[in-house]
# Entry
Amino acid sequence: MKPVNPRILTINGGSSSIKFAVFEAGDPLRRILEGGVERIGLPEATFVVKGLNQMDNFSRLVTAPDHTVAVCILMDWIEERSRLDALTAVGHRVVHGGPKYSRPQRITAEMVEELRQLSPFDPEHMPEEILLTEAFHRRFPDLPQVACFDTDFHHDLPRVARLLPIPRRYEAQGVRRYGFHGLSYAFLMRELARLGGMEAAQDRVILAHLGNGASLAAVRDGKSIDTSMSFTPTAGVPMSTRSGDLDPGLVWYLARTEGFDAKRFNEMVNFQSGLLGVSETSSDMHDLLDHETQDVRAAEAVALFCYQIKKWIGAFAAALSGLDTLVFAGGIGEKAPVVRARICEGLGFLGIELEEKRNAANEGVISIDSSRVMVRVIHTDEELMIAETVCDTLGFGSKE
# Structure
């Protein structure tokens, strides 16, 4: 029996945060509230909620040394506000599904155990995501939960893009290019079809999701044909604290010269590199832009980020045999006009020409009218994609 007014709780667990939102099913889905527990594991963690009802709006300091405590804070608040009876299901963003899981499905005890076996694929995210599903099941055992895999969008990459140039035996163990940010990319492609028509969505498209995590995807005929992230989300372009692609010989060099083991190297490339590593001051792009005229390290971090994004755009234009649409999304992609301008500078030979005023105003289309490539800025919404996926998976749909 379909619930009368389904309400979906979406959970997006990161390495230091738990973001959530509540949607009421309808045509379209309606976001009732959103929030999150931020700075998990750090002093002065915060619990923030923003809702349609003013009594739901608050921001307070909490003690959240780990995800176990953080999710308890969220679940306690749900019970205190008597929201449990109103919830129909929970949707979780799961970063990695490995070779077996890609399509969204209801979470079972068997799936949780198999995901636990996949934890070595992404040790920075998977353990916390499994913990979140188990915590909700213990507290709310009758509430169905759905896993929405971030690798889904790239599941059918062409074989030449999936293969990694290492001994073939590792492919049998599931070692391949997976790609991530799939929920964001699926949303962006749907929005592109809505804004530009189905023809635009079937053309040669490069999607640039640029935030704390950053990646690009090359899309043709609506399908991903390549993406910058690989076996893990550490690969590709430099990010806030992730290195992106590196010479693998660096592992052996640091092992010999500084005694690095695998754990220490992993810590470096995931939490000490990228914008933070180069600038030595901040992982936040806006902070770096504010200080680049006074601090050469900040300027070089920004320049490296823009340069590497530019290179991937050129590479993907080659893979696509041309380019029709370039889409910027994510916190940096949507809100940093100067970064977009620097990335696109010099790409006129590909047909990319920005209109300065449109770009400065963060308009939806930021290319000049005569540009061969349409350059768009689209606000992405992973939480909405999770909620819609949950509705479809459980059979009550968002459209009544």
Notes: The chain has 15 helices and 13 strands.
